[in-house]
Structures are given as C-alpha cells and as structure tokens.
Write a structure and sequence with these properties.
Blueprint (H helix, E strand, L loop, with lengths): L7 E8 L7 E9 L7 E8 L2 E2 L3 E8 L5 E5 L6 E5 L6 H13 L12
Antiparallel strand pairs: 1-2, 2-3, 3-4, 3-5, 5-6, 6-7
C-alpha cells in the first residue's frame, strides 16, 4: 500500500511589511507527498483551528537547506526563502530566472522582503 507520512509542525516566522516590522508567526502543518515529487500540502492553523489543506510545491531546495523555493500550482505565488537575512544578489537572480524559465512563473510583481 501507499506509505502515509506524518505532518511536520512548522512555525513560520516573518516580519510584517518591513525587516524591522512587527514579528509574527503562523503555525502550520506540512504534509509531504508520499511520492517524493515535492507536491506537499500545507495546513495553516489559526487560533488553534486547522484550516483546509492547500497545495504547496517544493520547487527548489539547496543541498545544505540554506534556501528553498515554494510555489503554488496556478503560479500566482512563489516564495524564495532563505535561512539567512540576506541572499547574495547573484543567487537570488539565478533562482528567479530558473522560476521563470523552468517553472513559468511571472515575476513582474515579485517583491523582495
């Protein structure tokens, strides 16, 4: 039968609207794909209540886990996330270019935060 994977508890921490903005955290469960294809599900938890599961595509991951790139199937959103506060400009440019060419994301409205 198909192997069932357990949820991974995540505390996604970010700063609202600016690097010095108010720090906020969103709890969520991530459900890895049993096939290993990067098509995960994400389930935000608000006020202790799990919401519906959403598609969460792992598009890229650094071998050392220093960054990951996550998108959604309709290509409306893509996130390039780094463990460090900054990412070298060349690396960011290369990741953005790869998202445009390989995954067909429109990055005209891309915002660096």
């Amino acid at each position: 039968g198909k192997k069932t994977l357990t949820a991974i508890d995540v505390n996604f921490t970010y700063r609202k609207k600016a690097f010095d903005g108010k720090r906020s955290t969103i709890k969520q469960n991530l459900f890895p794909s049993a096939s290993g294809d990067g098509a995960w599900k994400a389930q935000p938890i608000l006020c202790g209540i799990p919401l519906m599961k959403m598609d969460y595509l792992i598009l890229d991951l650094a071998p050392d886990y220093s960054y990951t790139v996550v998108g959604v199937p309709d290509r409306k959103y893509v996130w390039i996330m780094s463990r460090a506060m900054t990412m070298p400009a060349e690396q960011l440019a290369a990741l953005k270019e790869k998202k445009k060419k390989k995954h067909h994301y429109d990055l005209e409205a891309f915002i660096n935060v």
